[in-house]
Amino acid sequence: MENKRLFIAVDLPLEVKEAVYELSSRVLEDCDNVRPVKTTNIHVTLKFLGGVPADGIDIVSTAINHAVSFFKSFSFELDGKIDAFPDKKRARTVFTGIGDERQKLKMLYLSLEDSLERACSQFNIKAGRKDFVAHITLARLRYPEDIREAIRDAGSILPFRINVRAIALFESILDPEGVRYTKLEEFSLK
Predict the structure, then answer these.
(1) Tens-digit pLDDT profile for residues 30-69
(2) Phi and psi, residue 40, nearest 5°
(3) What is the pTM of this model?
(4) What architecture is the 3-188 domain classified under in CATH?
(5) Could you state, in order of their start, the residue ranges of all structural domains in the chain?
(6) SS (H, E, C) 78-139
(7) How far is CA 24 from CA 16, 18, 67, 79, 146, in A?
């Protein structure tokens, strides 16, 4: 049976995706090592599941439904600052963070971790990072690079307020033009 590369995320409004893409393009235009995230692929990842057998997607969906059943809709604001993993001096992933409400995203993440761990142990879903950092990826770098100079005068994106009424299960599909994300199912919060 074919495995599907799956992840759970908060999808974002188009205006936010466009602003995030514009920021990354402007700030990182002089870095030849950069692969910006396509506008259509911009989101807030809650959990990367990796390869899940196609016939296991229903089990994953049930676990996600269980996890979100405890959560009311909420909102968060982007902090608009640019940062990097593992750090700005050796950047591999460039991102913008979430404001003070990031704790709500972390609680949702922890609920997903718990529900998926119990329901999906047969799929070898990797345990998440204990230091979950809610963020929006702007770009990935092919090799580590010091981006401190590039982002010093970057400014930030407008402080968008994002209403989270649902989360989604996505499939990550690799094709010749790059990665493409397909929304498989949406899960409403209360």
Answers:
(1) 777 888 899 999 999 999 998 899 999 999 999 999 999 9
(2) -65, -20
(3) 0.91
(4) Alpha-Beta Complex (3.90)
(5) 3-188
(6) EEEEEEEECCHHHEEEEEEEECCCHHHHHHHHHHHHHHHHHHCHHHCCCCCCCCCCCEEEEE
(7) 12, 10, 33, 15, 16
